[in-house]
Write a structure and sequence with these properties.
Blueprint lengths: L3 E6 L4 H5 L3 H8 E2 L8 E6 L4 E6 L6 E2 L15 E7 L4 E5 L2 E5 L4 E4 L6 E5 L8 E7 L7 E3 L5 E5 L8 E7 L10 E7 L5 E2 L4 E2 L3 E8 L7 E7 L2 E7 L3 E5 L6 E4 L4 E8 L8 E2 L7
Parallel strand pairs: 1-3
Antiparallel strand pairs: 2-21, 3-4, 4-11, 5-10, 6-9, 6-11, 7-8, 7-10, 9-12, 13-14, 14-15, 15-23, 16-22, 17-24, 18-21, 18-23, 19-20, 19-22
């Protein structure tokens, strides 16, 4: 029996999004369920053909299957894969090489890797492998990145409610990739805003994955053109697609953690067009 499911989301223009109601916004951009026992759901965005998925092995290993939609001999024939574990400890086996991943550790798997398996160390506390994948033009070596190996930046302040730690995990200042970049931002207690001032970047799209949201709390994710913003209320362990023309920022009813993943034309982390806070509409 197949463990993979596949959903496609078409690219949308700012003009279309202006006319969307709440249900339509959520249908196009929100990824509600990523972790199902022994399953591997995928959502393909036609913005830069970015894939977002999750693997939660409970009763045994999950093999990375190749959805028919990819028209590929194997999943990573023309793709690269980024993984961050947000659950219990687990293992990823890539072409016979085993990588142990604790919570909040990352793994890059290069294009051309034929076999990938996901395993949990403890079925009662399964690993939750959050997965991002982008098209790749060449092979770079697979490599684990621990929290100690990340490039860490501290930004914001308590006064502006956005004191946060940015962990750059799978970025070109840490290891080579074709276009995929991933990292994790942790908000300090008392801070609720991420990515302020908000920005756009026409050179790449992005996906945000929110987790560590306390029970009974939520995050409001803001998107849209700077002068025509919209919002989507999000729950724990949900992701949202951000087009290249859209801002991407969030405010929670508590502090939380989120993973940012992006792909596109360049690998310059600082490539962004900042939108002054007072000019947002």
């Amino acid at each position: 029996m197949s463990t993979a499911s596949f959903d496609s989301r078409f690219a949308t223009s700012p003009t279309e999004v202006k006319a969307m109601d709440t249900a339509q916004l959520r249908q196009h951009f929100l990824i509600e369920t990523l972790f199902i026992a022994d399953q591997c759901p995928w959502v393909l965005s036609f913005f830069d053909r970015y894939l977002t998925g999750g693997a939660m092995p409970v009763n045994g290993p999950i093999t990375l299957e190749t959805p028919a939609n990819l028209k590929a001999a194997y999943f990573l024939e023309r793709r690269e894969l980024g993984i961050i574990n947000v659950g219990g400890t687990g293992r990823v086996i890539a072409n016979g090489e085993t990588f142990d991943l604790a919570r909040k550790e990352a793994l890059y798997i290069g294009q051309g890797t034929r076999q990938v398996e996901f395993l949990s160390d403890d079925a009662s506390d399964p690993a939750k492998f959050y997965l991002n994948s982008a098209p790749a033009h060449r092979n770079y070596p697979s490599r684990k990145v621990s929290r100690e190996q990340a490039e860490v930046v501290e930004l914001g302040s308590m006064e502006t409610a956005n004191h946060r730690i940015i962990n750059k995990l799978l970025v070109n200042s840490v290891l080579p990739t074709c276009q995929l970049q991933m990292g994790m931002t942790e908000l300090k207690a008392g801070s609720i805003w991420n990515t302020m001032p908000a920005h756009t970047h026409d050179r790449r799209m992005e996906v945000y994955f929110y987790f560590d949201i306390p029970k009974g709390q939520s995050v409001c994710h803001f998107m849209g053109e700077p002068q025509e913003t919209r919002h989507i209320w999000m729950q724990n362990e949900q992701a949202v697609i951000s087009p290249n023309w859209s801002i991407h920022a969030g405010s929670g009813t508590s502090n939380y953690t989120f993973i940012w993943g992006m792909a596109g034309e360049n690998l310059d982390y600082g490539d962004m067009d900042v939108c002054p806070i007072t000019e947002l509409r």
